[in-house]
């Protein structure tokens, strides 16, 4: 099992390095990530490489049995490089350069930057490609974090024009696909096309806006591919990863992950959800990362203390570091690296705390990590590589999320929140979920849910029809089939390409403003919850209603439907459902689809239940997110693996505690 930290030896005197390595080894740490921001230390001046300090650091770590993930430092091009190429700075949609002093300030599409990347990465891979102490490589750092993907510089304008020409072939095809006849936007050449930058009235052609997001994501993937090619040629036996950001959406991480050996995640619950950390959101980010390659992943940066740049976020209470670690493992993390080893004394992250405080003296966070590491060294070998055993797949579509960002259509409504409303149902119901792309096969799942699948990727409707006919269950909802894949409206009667699958016709629709709802009822008139955000007026052609509007002009008409399709079925929800309505509708769907929750263990809502399972083994995690102990109920005698004891009946789980049970 890989258990470690992110380490920056360049921040500390060399005489401290042996003590750091010794303390790491005593805490059970066997791997560190190193070097991803060290370019100016490795190449102080153009072509003057100084690797000796890194050699010494790796040697000291190796003497304590610690291996490294070596980062390429391309997230932080040094000042001398930026001064040589001032047009390398990324520019925002108002044309303002990001400037020097942060990180990821470069443009992916600058024509000269690859020359410098080729040089530094080749030097690193040549020197360390055969080094036994290098366990893996990390490319750059956190693509798509904090608006660092979409650049509006002249280099990107040229690259975007070339990307469009390669996609559309001729300008008339682009004009047709985008509908540029609107507002007199017809182009005569690709060279005329501008970037969708800031305008007084910020509403660009939706086809252009979507293609620009696609292009920007592809630019990051291509940028990564350059480094992958260098490392694979010089270090063919060393795996390569990148640390992604879970539910961040600037880059299509399904595409970014394809050529990686494994995916990695950076996870900071107290930063991402500072007001009130939500374990559902953390769990979704973890499941999303497992879905990038439909395989387990590494936690490359795991919160270990209070994060902070110019201000501090909440300090993890005793036990929370361990609790979050077990949540990560429960959802597929096969390696844990905490960020960071020691809290830095200078720079922009002086308040971003690590396992050790500023004085470098081990305290409670170090001790908690050491305890957690000792437990995981015993547990993870039993379950390494084992996934969730999920019967449910949720389809995450970056391109539909981008389209919803471009044209939200409803007030204060977002794709990610809508997606989370379904995920929250499964989390609360203790039903494991895989989060996958629409390119993946559906056949291994009993239920496939496609939230806000507005633009239908070509071929997906036919695949869903075959899947349902063979016995699968499909759920689609508001706006499904509204648009074509180029982000223009479909002129087919709604729900467009899904009309045959769903067996319905939508005759009218409308938005609900913030705070507006419509009562939703069952056949007997009993209200099951509220519809929010949107309403569709539905005519059942072949489908049967399963819920009805109980007010407004559509009262008595279907709000949700079910259509029999061969051996399976397809559901449509014509509303945004509040939690009560979602629970009622999805309970019916899951019961009909024969989807099973975790039943061997039960407990209150503050206790998360998750599972890693394959055909022969099952491991059930109970994680108490409350600051007080809670009671569990076990369906039968079960071995709890952390304490190595058999428990049965009622069991108490401590505040921020975690149990791991060997399931049937």
Automatic annotation (TrEMBL):
Enzymatic reactions: Hydrolysis of terminal non-reducing beta-D-galactose residues in beta-D-galactosides
UniProt xrefs under InterPro entries: Beta_galactosidase_C, Beta_galactosidase_Trimer, Class_I_gatase-like, GH, Glyco_hydro_42, Glyco_hydro_42_N, Glyco_hydro_b
Alphabetized Pfam families for the sequence: Glyco_hydro_42, Glyco_hydro_42C, Glyco_hydro_42M
Origin: domain of life: Bacteria
Domain Beta-galactosidase C-terminal: residue ranges: 607-657
Organism: Paenibacillus glycanilyticus
UniProt KW keywords: Glycosidase, Hydrolase, Metal-binding, Zinc
Start and end residues of each Glycoside hydrolase family 42 N-terminal domain: 6-378
CDD domains in the cross-refs: A4_beta-galactosidase_middle_domain
Keyword Metal-binding recorded: yes
Protein's name according to its UniProt entry: Beta-galactosidase
Membership in a protein family: Belongs to the glycosyl hydrolase 42 family.
EC number: 3.2.1.23
Beta-galactosidase trimerisation domain: residues covered: 390-595
């Amino acid at each position: 099992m890989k258990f470690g930290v992110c380490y920056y030896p360049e921040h500390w005197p060399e005489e401290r390095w042996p003590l750091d390595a010794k303390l790491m080894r005593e805490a059970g740490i066997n791997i560190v990530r190193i070097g991803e921001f060290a370019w100016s230390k490795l190449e102080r001046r153009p072509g003057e490489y100084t690797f000796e300090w890194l050699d010494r650091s790796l040697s000291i770590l190796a003497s304590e049995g610690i291996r490294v993930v070596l980062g390429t430092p391309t997230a932080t091009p040094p000042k001398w490089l930026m001064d040589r190429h001032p047009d390398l700075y990324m520019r925002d949609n108002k044309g303002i350069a990001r400037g020097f002093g942060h990180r990821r300030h470069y443009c992916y599409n600058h024509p000269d930057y690859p020359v410098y990347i080729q040089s530094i990465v080749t030097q690193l891979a040549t020197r360390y490609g055969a080094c036994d102490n290098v366990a893996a490589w990390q490319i750059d750092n956190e693509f798509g974090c904090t608006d660092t993907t979409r650049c509006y510089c002249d280099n990107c304008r040229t690259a975007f024009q070339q990307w469009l020409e390669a996609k559309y072939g001729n300008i008339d095809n682009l004009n047709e696909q985008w509908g540029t006849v609107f507002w007199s936007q017809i182009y005569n050449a690709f060279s005329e096309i501008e970037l969708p930058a800031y305008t007084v009235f910020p509403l660009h052609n939706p086809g252009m806006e979507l293609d620009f997001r696609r292009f920007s994501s592809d630019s990051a993937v291509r940028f990564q591919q350059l480094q992958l090619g260098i490392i694979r040629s010089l270090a063919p036996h060393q795996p390569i990863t990148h640390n992604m950001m879970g539910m961040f959406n600037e880059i299509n991480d399904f595409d970014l992950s394809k050529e990686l050996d494994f995916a990695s995640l950076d996870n900071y619950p107290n930063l991402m959800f500072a007001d009130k950390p939500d374990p559902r959101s953390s769990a979704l980010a973890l499941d999303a990362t497992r879905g990038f390659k439909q395989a387990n992943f590494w936690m490359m940066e795991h919160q270990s203390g209070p994060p902070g740049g110019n201000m501090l976020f909440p300090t993890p209470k005793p036990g929370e570091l361990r609790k979050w670690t077990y949540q990560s493992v429960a959802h597929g993390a096969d390696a844990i690296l905490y960020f960071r080893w020691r809290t830095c004394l200078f720079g922009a992250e002086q308040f971003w705390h690590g396992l050790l405080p500023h004085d470098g003296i081990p305290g409670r966070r170090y001790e908690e990590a050491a305890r957690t590491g000792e437990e995981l060294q015993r547990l993870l070998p039993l379950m390494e590589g084992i996934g969730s055993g999920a019967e449910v797949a949720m389809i995450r579509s970056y391109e539909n999320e981008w389209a919803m960002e471009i044209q939200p259509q409803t007030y204060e409504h977002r794709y990610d929140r809508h997606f989370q409303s379904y995920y929250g149902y499964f989390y609360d119901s203790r039903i494991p979920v895989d989060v996958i792309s629409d390119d993946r096969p559906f056949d291994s799942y009993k239920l496939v849910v496609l939230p806000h699948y507005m633009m239908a990727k070509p071929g997906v409707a036919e695949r869903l029809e075959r899947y349902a006919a063979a016995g699968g269950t499909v759920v689609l909802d508001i706006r499904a089939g509204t648009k074509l894949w180029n982000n223009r409206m479909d002129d087919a009667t709604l729900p467009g390409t899904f009309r045959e699958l769903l067996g319905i016709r939508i005759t009218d629709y409308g938005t609900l403003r913030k705070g507006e709802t419509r009562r939703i009822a069952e056949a007997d008139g009993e209200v099951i919850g509220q519809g929010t955000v949107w309403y569709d007026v539905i005519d059942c052609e072949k489908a049967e209603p399963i819920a009805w509007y109980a007010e407004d002009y559509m009262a008595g008409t279907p709000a949700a439907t079910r259509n029999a399709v061969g051996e399976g079925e397809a559901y449509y929800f014509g509303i945004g459902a509040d939690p009560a309505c979602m629970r009622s509708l999805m309970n019916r769907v899951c019961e009909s689809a024969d989807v099973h929750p975790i039943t061997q263990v039960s407990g209150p809502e503050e206790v998360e239940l998750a599972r890693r399972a394959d055909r022969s083994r099952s491991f059930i995690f109970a994680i108490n997110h409350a600051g007080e102990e809670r009671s569990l109920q076990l369906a039968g005698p079960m071995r709890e693996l952390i304490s190595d004891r058999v428990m049965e009946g009622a069991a108490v789980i401590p505040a921020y505690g975690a149990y791991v049970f060997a399931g049937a």
